[in-house]
From TrEMBL:
HAMAP family: MurD (MF_00639). Keywords: ATP-binding, Cell cycle, Cell division, Cell shape, Cell wall biogenesis/degradation, Cytoplasm, Ligase, Nucleotide-binding, Peptidoglycan synthesis. This is UDP-N-acetylmuramoylalanine--D-glutamate ligase. Residues 106-286 form the Mur ligase central domain.
Length: 444
């Protein structure tokens, strides 16, 4: 069986290692440049590879192709594979049959990384032999090849879910759905929604589907489609018989099989309404995995949040600087602005993915005193927000953006980097953008 892998990054190299171990004839092809450390791994393992090109005669003879999530379906080589009816799958789909481990799949437009890290933290503190993979951490396929773990917490993007055929998580979590990556879905929101729900399409009556009951998009889809898994909702507004809700005393209450887990919200390490939901989702998983309540409680108080997600960087002259570079869509920035409790200088901008900024208008009027646009093309942001705030500045440099923010902010204010856009105009990725922000703040 010939396994061709498109993309020589973490997921591609991990899949190559697993494929080689399972007896496949493996070939890795990357249209960009493969990093030196990955080239070394492929060479040591005697795996054939190429970069900066796709040689068609070495690719179109595949029995199966694993495509990295960053490569769009529209790319010419993928189109040719589809025309030849060669299966094009994701790393998760390829690796899953080679492990008997329990898998917890977590998706959503926002909060995936935080919830995945928190779930992993709860299970690890509970003594389980657990791996962390998907969009985060070491490649799932690589870990399966090394046969390390009894269960895995997987952060799953819509792109990874598009590449599954038979994979099903034992526990699926769908946090929320809001317009994102629409450029990859022909600007059709329904295609993106269907993509997210692929997480539950192969689940059976033995599996669990945890979801946000307050999310209108999720509720509408569930009203019109049947799923086989046991539905376990969570909500900030409704009391739920089987699932997560908030008590009158401002506690989270997870009810499962007539068993209650209760904890005051003010004791949680993560702040903000959206993080109450993320915490309820992760705690529900921990309950289903039979982690002791005392362990869950302790773990929810000592959890360190995800880097680049509402990350408190420094307080300088009583101004708090917050790095939310991972907010690459409007909905994520909505959560960030909603959780601000002091006047805010907002750094926003980047590559617009078809954003609709209308839902931010009320929050900007209420919370934002100044806007700094950090992007190559800021026209859409300027048209929408320039008249709403006292100070509106455009720049193409992170160090300059932070210096301007420092001048705008007064004692007691917050400077928030929450771009609502992708980063590729000025930065390698959102991590690079977040690191540059933190460096610029430290240089003040």
């Amino acid at each position: 069986m010939r396994l061709v892998i498109l993309g020589g990054g973490e997921s591609g190299v991990g899949t190559a290692i697993l494929g080689k171990k399972k007896g496949y004839d493996v070939f890795v092809s990357d249209f960009g440049k493969i990093k030196e450390n990955y080239k070394e791994v492929l060479t040591i393992n005697k795996i054939a590879w190429e970069d900066e090109k796709h040689t068609e005669e070495l690719i179109l003879n595949a029995d199966v192709v694993m495509k990295s999530p960053g490569i769009p379906e529209k790319s010419p080589i993928v189109k040719k594979l589809v025309e030849k009816n060669i299966p094009v799958i994701s790393e998760i789909e390829f690796a899953a049959p080679f492990t008997t481990a329990t898998t917890i799949g977590i998706t959503g437009s926002n909060g995936k990384t935080t919830t995945t890290l928190l779930t992993y933290h709860l299970l690890k503190q509970g003594g389980l032999n657990v791996g962390l993979a998907g969009n985060i951490g070491k490649s799932f396929a690589w870990q399966v090849a090394e046969n390390k773990h009894d269960c895995y917490v997987l952060e799953l993007s819509s792109f990874q879910l598009d590449g599954i055929i038979n994979y099903k998580p034992d526990i699926a979590v769908l946090l929320n759905i809001s317009p994102d990556h629409l450029d990859r879905y022909n600007y059709d929101y329904n295609l993106y929604i269907d993509s997210k729900f692929r997480i539950t399409m192969n689940q059976t009556a033995d599996d669990y589907f945890i979801y946000d009951q307050d999310d209108a998009t999720i509720s509408n889809w569930l009203a019109n489609h049947q799923i086989k898994a046991n539905k376990v909702p969570f909500s900030l507004v409704n009391q739920i018989d089987e699932g997560g809700s908030v008590t009158e005393n401002n506690e989270i209450n997870i009810k499962l099989n007539e068993d209650n887990f209760i904890m005051p919200i003010n004791k949680l390490a993560l702040e903000g309404k959206h993080n109450v939901k993320n915490t309820m989702a992760a705690t529900t998983v921990a309950q289903l995995m039979n982690i002791r309540k005392a362990t869950i409680r302790e773990s929810l108080t000592n959890f360190q949040g995800a880097e680049h997600r509402l990350e408190k960087v420094l307080k300088i002259n009583n101004v708090q600087y917050i790095n939310d570079s991972k907010a690459t869509n409007v909905n994520a920035t909505f959560f960030a602005l909603d959780s601000m409790i002091t006047p805010t200088v907002w750094i926003v901008g980047g590559v617009d993915k078809g954003n609709d900024y209308d839902e931010l208008m009320a929050l900007v009027r209420e919370k934002v005193k100044g806007i700094i646009c950090l992007g190559v093309d800021n026209k859409k942001l300027a048209d929408k927000f320039e008249g709403l705030v006292d100070m509106f500045v455009e720049t193409t440099s992170m160090s300059e953006a932070v210096k301007i923010a420092n001048k705008m902010a007064e004692k007691g204010d917050t400077v928030l980097l929450s771009p609502a856009c992708a980063s590729f105009d000025l930065f390698e990725n959102y991590e690079d953008r977040g690191r540059q922000f933190k460096q610029a703040v430290q240089n003040l």
